[in-house]
């Protein structure tokens, strides 16, 4: 949603459309200059939001445009939103309100103008008739709507927070006498009786109050409930009440609340038990209780300071501020309870808004040094971690896994402990969300995303729990089921990642997801075994000191027909995280020789990550690459003595992204795969994408993918197509391409087989 009476920019209920657009299997629409497919989740989200705001489940899309059946195309494809009776929604994106007809009969729809006046909404979605300026506003009996009056008669009712008043107000609070007053920033909340008990009032940015005042009520009520547990006066007397807040988010239209709602729901289950134990604590130690009151006030001040710095419309930032403040508050309560009799299991996790995961009472409650801030330099993280005792490290990994599991600079050994402890809970949480989605009629797209994530988590769980040789043990180094709405982000290590002399990091390409990890882990295990064999035959020191990581920490294009394949946007989005990951590995083990592997689109991600610098990667191997956006190997900032290599099978269809000029849509059948090449409507050829071919990069060396003899593995089968590079060939042996992966990782120069 946008301002009080307008949806987000680019959301228009009128007809969408653009220049001639071709389609393959589905229609593409031009929405504010952005191409959106017929099946994109955008449409389901827009439809759900419109139905919610208008309270009309009959709202649907009406298709426009002219189809050319013989050519399977559509001229100027478009769609507009209409009510159940067929009349159009406002064509400029404004919100319409339904009100009783002053003359009786069918209700009338209005739209609000910038000056606060309203006009009737015509059937074609345009404003019509005289402007009406209400002179009085009052809440409806359920306090969910503000009713506008003119000359004592109701004109229309608008959802709370969606109305612009005569002085620019976007929300009102109703006093006991029935009058409405603007809800101002920093004054507390008139809708929360008794909020003056708080020594420090939560202060919210004005845009939060305007966007969703119900959220303000919920947060103030929560802090007030915690404060009431700590009693009033001296000696303190506890006043334990029922859960003091209503779950926000039902009418806010804010994505982050899907996570927040689950957190509030679960917090309700903990609230009563905390209150019971607080009654015991308060009665036993007034002085300690007063100190805890002060710590609660400090937590609110923390929230105020962080919230004030959050950019407008960044609700994720507000959630983070609230999570930190509640963590401090619950840490203070935990410290108090720990010193009382009958503390019970106060360390039971308390769910607060943090990715819908269970967040235990803050580390401070256990006397642990505070962790570095999120996204801190991995060297700083490593320095902090190395300053902890072994008991403290184990406590962090087991009791506070969310502070360890995905933190670059923490050793993989402890990240694995942390992420394994979170995995079962993540699976249970997603299963509940999926069950709720099916029960309460979520969109097909939302349900599919939840189901996909759940399947990915279960495949990861099965893979890391497989019985394998001790030297091939798996470690779950990254587990992030929340930051991407469509898929899980994860990474699995094979071998001793922290102590290995030689470490390979593999990044997948097109269609790679966390669901690909089981196969990637098997391939990494085979490359590790071949590397060890080469090192043994070469008489190297400590030949088994080799490890591999399969990294799926970014969203790759979903397939060869995904238009995002012809853009570097996803690659740039993933490159920063990959660079940070590389730097984390080096911070843990600065002497480790790291080899970076990138396949397909993942080769571009790897190249861009290396170009950011600051890492300690020694060698890079790119295979099946569409291009590296790189002129010279020197731009990769490899460690002294490092080299860059590439592999390309003769029939890899990725070569078509550099050799076939783009028409509006051209489909080329290659090796059973349809490679769809889509022009960006500017007329320039596909060769402009992704920069140089790998073979055109100055200083790079080509490795063989063809059948032939090798220095350490005998005769090997060649690779073909786009996907065989790391896969096993006949006789349970790697192909030439996979052997060369191991040869580079070994560091034995004479092991390589160069050329095509």
Describe the model.
The structure is a single chain. This protein is α+β, with helices and mostly antiparallel strands and 756 residues long. 33% of the residues lie in helices and 17% in strands. The protein contains 15 helices and 25 strands. The strands form 8 sheets. An 8-stranded mixed sheet has the order 14-15-17-16-18-19-20-23. Strands 5-6-7-8 form a 4-stranded antiparallel sheet, with no helix packed on it. A 3-stranded antiparallel sheet has the order 9-10-11, with no helix packed on it. The longest helix has 28 residues. The protein is globular and about 95 Å long. The N terminus is likely disordered. This is DUF1023 domain-containing protein. Pfam families: Abhydrolase_8.
SSE layout and pairing:
Layout: E1 28-31, E2 34-37, H1 41-54, E3 60-68, E4 73-82, E5 96-99, E6 108-112, E7 118-121, E8 127-132, E9 136-139, E10 145-150, E11 153-159, E12 172-174, E13 180-182, H2 206-211, H3 213-229, H4 257-284, H5 286-308, H6 315-338, H7 378-386, H8 390-399, H9 412-439, H10 444-464, E14 474-480, E15 489-494, E16 502-507, H11 517-537, E17 546-552, H12 569-588, E18 593-599, H13 601-611, E19 617-623, E20 644-647, H14 656-659, E21 666-670, E22 673-677, E23 701-702, E24 708-710, E25 714-716, H15 736-746
Parallel strand pairs: 16-17, 16-18, 18-19, 19-20, 20-23
Antiparallel strand pairs: 1-2, 3-4, 5-6, 6-7, 7-8, 9-10, 10-11, 12-13, 14-15, 15-17, 21-22, 24-25
């Amino acid at each position: 949603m946008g301002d009080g009476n307008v949806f987000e920019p680019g959301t228009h209920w009128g007809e969408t459309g653009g220049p001639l657009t071709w389609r393959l299997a589905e229609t593409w629409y031009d929405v504010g200059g952005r191409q959106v497919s017929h099946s994109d989740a955008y449409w389901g989200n827009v439809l759900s939001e419109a139905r919610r705001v208008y309270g009309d489940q009959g709202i649907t899309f009406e298709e426009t445009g002219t189809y050319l059946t013989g050519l399977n195309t559509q001229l100027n494809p478009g769609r507009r939103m209409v009510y159940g009776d067929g009349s159009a929604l406002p064509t400029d994106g404004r919100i319409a309100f339904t009100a009783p007809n002053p003359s009786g009969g069918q209700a009338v729809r209005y739209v609000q103008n910038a000056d606060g006046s309203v006009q009737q909404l015509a059937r074609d979605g345009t404003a019509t008739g005289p402007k009406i300026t209400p002179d009085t506003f009052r809440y409806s009996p359920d306090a969910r709507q503000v009713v506008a009056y003119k000359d004592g008669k109701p004109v229309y009712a608008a959802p709370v927070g969606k109305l612009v008043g005569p002085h620019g107000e976007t929300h009102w609070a109703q006093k006991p006498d029935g009058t409405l007053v603007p809800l101002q920033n920093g004054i507390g909340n008139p809708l929360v009786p008794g909020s003056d008990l708080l020594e420090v009032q939560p202060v919210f940015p004005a845009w939060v109050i305007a966007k969703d005042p119900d959220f303000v009520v919920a947060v103030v009520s929560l802090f007030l409930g915690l404060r009431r547990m700590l009693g009033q006066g001296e000696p303190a007397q506890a006043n334990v009440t029922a859960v003091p807040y209503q779950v926000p988010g039902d009418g806010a239209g804010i994505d982050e609340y899907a996570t927040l709602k689950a957190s509030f729901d679960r917090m309700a289950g903990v609230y009563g038990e905390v209150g019971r134990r607080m009654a015991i604590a308060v009665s036993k130690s007034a002085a300690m209780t007063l100190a805890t009151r002060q710590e609660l006030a400090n937590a609110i001040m923390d929230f105020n300071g962080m919230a004030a710095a959050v950019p407008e419309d960044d609700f994720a930032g507000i959630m983070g501020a609230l999570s930190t403040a509640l963590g401090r508050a619950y840490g203070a309560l935990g410290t108090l309870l720990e010193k009382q009799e009958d503390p019970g299991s106060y360390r039971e996790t308390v769910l607060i808004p943090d990715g819908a995961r269970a967040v235990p009472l803050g580390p401070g409650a256990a006397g642990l040094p505070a962790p570095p801030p999120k996204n801190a330099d991995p060297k700083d993280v490593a320095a902090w971690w190395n300053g902890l005792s072994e008991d403290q490290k184990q406590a962090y990994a087991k009791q506070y896994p969310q502070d360890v599991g995905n933190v670059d600079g923490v050793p993989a050994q402890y990240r694995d402990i942390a992420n394994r402890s979170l995995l079962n809970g993540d699976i249970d949480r997603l299963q509940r969300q999926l069950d709720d989605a099916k029960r309460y009629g979520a969109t097909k797209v939302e349900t599919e995303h939840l189901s996909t994530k759940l399947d990915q988590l279960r495949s990861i769980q099965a893979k890391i729990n497989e019985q394998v040789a001790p030297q091939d043990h798996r470690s779950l180094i990254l587990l992030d089921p929340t930051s991407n709405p469509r898929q899980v982000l994860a990474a699995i290590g094979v071998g001793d990642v922290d102590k290995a002399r030689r470490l390979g990091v593999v990044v997948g390409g097109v269609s790679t997801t966390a669901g690909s990890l089981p196969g990637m882990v098997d391939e990494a295990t085979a490359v590790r075994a071949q590397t060890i064999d080469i090192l043994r035959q070469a008489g190297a020191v400590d030949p088994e000191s080799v490890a591999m990581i399969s990294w799926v920490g970014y969203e790759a294009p979903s397939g060869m027909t995904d238009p995002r394949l012809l853009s570097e946007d996803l690659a740039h989005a993933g490159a920063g995280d990959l660079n940070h990951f590389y730097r984390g590995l080096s911070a843990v083990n600065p002497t480790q020789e790291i080899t970076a592997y990138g396949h397909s689109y993942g080769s571009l991600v790897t190249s861009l990550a290396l170009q950011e610098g600051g890492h300690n990667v020694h060698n890079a191997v790119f295979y099946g690459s569409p291009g590296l956006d790189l002129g010279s190997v020197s731009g990769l900032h490899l460690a002294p003595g490092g080299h860059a290599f590439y592999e390309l099978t003769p029939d890899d269809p990725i070569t078509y992204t550099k050799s076939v000029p783009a028409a509006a849509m051209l489909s080329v059948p290659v090796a059973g795969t349809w490679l769809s090449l889509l022009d960006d409507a500017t007329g320039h050829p596909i060769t402009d994408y992704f920069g140089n071919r790998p073979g055109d990069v100055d200083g790079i060396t080509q490795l063989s993918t063809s059948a032939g003899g090798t220095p350490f593995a005998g005769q090997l089968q060649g690779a073909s197509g786009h996907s065989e590079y790391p896969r096993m060939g006949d006789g349970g042996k790697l192909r030439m391409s996979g052997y060369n992966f191991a040869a580079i990782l070994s560091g034995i120069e004479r092991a390589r087989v160069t050329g095509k």
